[in-house]
Structures are given as C-alpha cells and as structure tokens.
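User:
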Amino acid sequence: MNSFSFKDLYEVKVNKISPVDKSNNLTFILLPAIGVPIKKYERLIIGLKDNGYSVVYADYPCCGDNFPQISKSHDYDYSDLLKYFIPNLIKSCDTQNLVLLGHSLGGHLASLYALENNIPIVVIASGNIHYKNWNFVGRAKILSAVILFKSLTKAYGFFPGYKVGFGHREAKSLMNNWCHTVLTGNYDFSGIEVKRSNAKSLFINIKNDNFSPLESTKKLAEMFSSTVFQQIELPSHLKGNRHSIWLKSPDQIIKVIDNTMKKSPI
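Assistant: Predicted structure:
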C-alpha cells in the first residue's frame, strides 16, 4: 500500500492489485461513487484481476479508510479531485496503458479528466445529472433533492448524507458542484473546457437505474466521439437500487468491460 498527500493536507491510501499473468499490461484506475467506500468494490476489483487486469484504487480524501473525516473544516471540490487526486493515482501505475473506470461521481470525474488529457475511460451507472435528463417524476425528485441537500449542507458545513440515504459525510464544495450541475447541466466549476473528445470511452447504462437514467448517460457520452455504449439489464435475483446493487454481482459488467477491451485494445 502506498499513499500520497492530497493538497498537502490529507493522506490518501492507495492500493494496487495485479494478476500473476500481466500480459494484458492494462491498469484500471477505479473512481468510486459518492459515499461508497472502496471496500464495496472488492468483487469488481477481484473480478478484473482474475481477467488479467491490474487495478489501482483508493477512497476519496477524508472518506472510507482516509482520515480525518469530512467536516466543515475539511473540504474540497471536483476541481481539487481532478488536479490532486486522479493525477496521484496515475503516478501509482507502472504502465502507460491505463483506463479510468468511474462509477456515478467517478464517471463524472473520469469524463472531465479525459476531456483534457485524452485518456481512455469506462463509465458505469453515471451521466449528466441535469434535471432535464429525467422524466417528469424524476425531475421533481432530483430538484427536491437539491433543495434538501443545499439546506443540509448549509446547516452542517458539510453534507450529512447518512441522514437521507445518499452518501455518508460528503464535502460541502463537492456537493455544491453536484447541485450546480443538476440545475444547469454544465461543469463550469471544474476548470475543464467541455469540448468533444476523441478519447476512447465505454459507457455502461443499467436499465431502470433511477439515479442514472438512459438519457442522462447518453448526455454525458455525447462529449466523446469514439464511444461504445451498452445498456444492460441486471438479473432479477439482484434486488435493490440498480445504481449500486450490481456491486454485489459484477460479473455481467466485468464481461462487458473485458469484451470491449479485447475488441478495441487501448
């Protein structure tokens, strides 16, 4: 296990796992969802390793196994993660052949980073979260969520996601960025120029994922000209929120990733 100092303030622990046979010579850098500790991705990580891939993975700063915990005194935003989190994970790779693999928030970050750095990405259950990318009922729910999230964040100085079942303890500025995109559909706060990129990309949408509906995923994928787009339906025995329940049985998603990497090598 290695570590780095995020913004010269917070230690971030970095893990890496590699297969015995490294003939693929490809490393995935895993970027998790909001409030999902990296240990929840164990089956995905092991599955990728068993298919011949290395994986570099870490909790976000002040989250999971990283301390101190998020509070009103410990804060960061999307731009900080793009400048100081992802580049340090890349430095942990021992190959130039790497892919950013992002789930939900991680998909936003992977996409924005790829726009400026032309790095291949895999995006799972993620999309442009502009309220217009939901149906009428979905729009009402996500706009209501913004009102609630902003109120809680203002009151606590951080976002207490554990109170509403969305994330855990999340950074104030990060959540303000998230709410901004819901309302506007843009990422002006990131400092990244949003322009169509030819970076290789795989977008995986999960049918009936109410947190990342099809139109939302398509909108995010529009930023890339060289895109493989797949929608999958999870098996019926997986009960619960489609957005994250796939982590309990990720074989279907691993198969899509592996097939895509073999058909279109990085």
